[in-house]
Amino acid sequence: MRADAERNRARVLAAAMTAFATGGLSVSVAEIARRAGVGTGTVSRHFPTKESLYEAIVLLRVGEIVDQARWLAATKDPGTAFFAFFAHMVDQAAANRGLAEALAGDGFDVEAAAARTGLDLDGVERELLDHARRAGAVRPDLTWADVKALIVGCLAREGAFTDAEARRRMIEIACAGLAAPPGHDPSRGMITGG
Fold it and tell me: HTH tetR-type domain: from which residue to which, for each copy (predicted)?
């Protein structure tokens, strides 16, 4: 790719990243082109559809999320890794409306897009959950669908306004509900005592 075409692509990606983070999926290609200082034709040459541009942006974020999940799994105990990842996902989605919409499944299948590029977001998420479950750190009946719903719920509380205190409180409430009940014996898959 020529140097000027590479610069234009980088400008489009940077503009799209900001636009999707603040405006979500509803941002138009024309608005992204305006922010990048290029024409819509330039955007279309690099990204034939708005969805392909959105996918490129989300996958940049997903790559970072997968790296964070792997780092947590390698450096923390299973329970700490799981709960830190949960908080990280909420924080990342709160800072990026486009990512929040993708995680909520609003017109974009983030796991399928990640899988097409070799990023196993679903796999690392489930691995963190499975390790936490086996360690007895989370409820034995917890599914990743439950976790995703709670991530979206934490974001719903914040709404259109950034409220880090409310977000932190919602993360704490959700994590308390995700945690294994007192007396849970992971080796037996049940609660002992009471």
Answer: 6-65
Exposed (0-12), middle (13-18) or buried (19+): which is 144, by Cβ within 10 Å?
middle
| Residue pair 75/65 in contact by the 8 Å Cβ criterion | no
pLDDT tens per residue, range 26-36: 888 999 999 99
Q: Where are the domains of the chain?
A: 1-48, 51-191
What CATH code is assigned to 51-191?
A: 1.10.357.10
- CATH superfamily, domain 1-48, is Homeodomain-like (1.10.10.60)
What is the number of other CB atoms lying within 10 angstroms of the CB of residue 92?
Answer: 18
DSSP codes of every residue in 29-62:
HHHHHHHHTS-HHHHHHH-SSHHHHHHHHHHHHH
